[in-house]
Amino acid sequence: MSGTLPVIEPVSPAIGARVTGLDLSQDVSDQAWKTVQDAFHQYNVLVFPGQDISVEQQKSFTARFGPLMTHSHLLPMTVEGHPEVMVLHNNEQKPPGLNDWHTDNSGWSEPPLGTSLYAKVTPKVGGDTLYGNMYLAYETLSAPMQELLLQLTATHDVRKAFGPDYGNLQKSLRKKGIDPDQQFAGQDPVEHPLIRTHPETGRRALYISNPYVTRINGVTESESRALLDFLRRHIETNELIYRHRWTQGDLVIWDNRCTQHLAVADYFPHERLMHRLNIAGEKPFLKL
């Protein structure tokens, strides 16, 4: 177990920090973990570069943040013997699927707290991931807009995220023997607040996820479309974003409760291989 404390360095003014001085193949001391935990709540996205870790070591460190999730619909896409570890593998035969801003699995009643992504193989060019600060997305809105959004909820539907709008993703699942239509036929949409309160920091964050959100509730259909279009554009504001250029051995862990991300699908036909873990979360809520 290393007794040295990690060094935390911001990677952008808006979001994210690089964590150096930790070898995640070794046990992390309680003191070092406290430094990491505090940085997670402050910066929302943590980059651990140059890690040489096994599946078990990624699981062990990620589990410090909370219980690991298993997704029944993704089991054929996981590492053998490790149902929590999803393999994200794209190459010439398997183009990247999702190319949209989102927060992971918002179509479930208790979406994941966070995500851990480890770079096994990175493309020669492209394949960056953009991360957006949803605290700032809320805080940079005008007071009247904030007041409006605090009153509203949105409907999130798993069937939209795995439907025809995302053809490459649907095709990838079918190749693994997963029929999205059958898998999610009985899964009802869920309702989440448009603005959620972070249970650890108490701060408010914008909470939408384009692949999952079907409408904003409590307003007309045309008003819902206009609001969603505005919020989607707002999320893309450069001042909210950090762009991560992956290097083999990078481990990135982010907080889904106050961030969105976009995996840029610009690297086809190059290979990209990642191991992904989700950390169990709670039902989103708004504290007024």
TrEMBL record:
Residues 8-277 form the TauD/TfdA-like domain. Pfam families: TauD (PF02668). It comes from the Bacteria. GO terms for cellular component: cytoplasm. One of its GO terms (biological process) is sulfur compound metabolic process. GO terms for molecular function: metal ion binding; taurine dioxygenase activity. Keywords: Dioxygenase, Iron, Metal-binding, Oxidoreductase. The keyword Oxidoreductase applies. InterPro entries: AtsK-like (IPR051323), TauD-like_sf (IPR042098), TauD/TfdA-like (IPR003819). Gene3D superfamilies: Clavaminate synthase-like. Belongs to the TfdA dioxygenase family. This is Taurine dioxygenase. The lineage of its organism: Bacteria, Bacillati, Actinomycetota, Actinomycetes, Kitasatosporales.
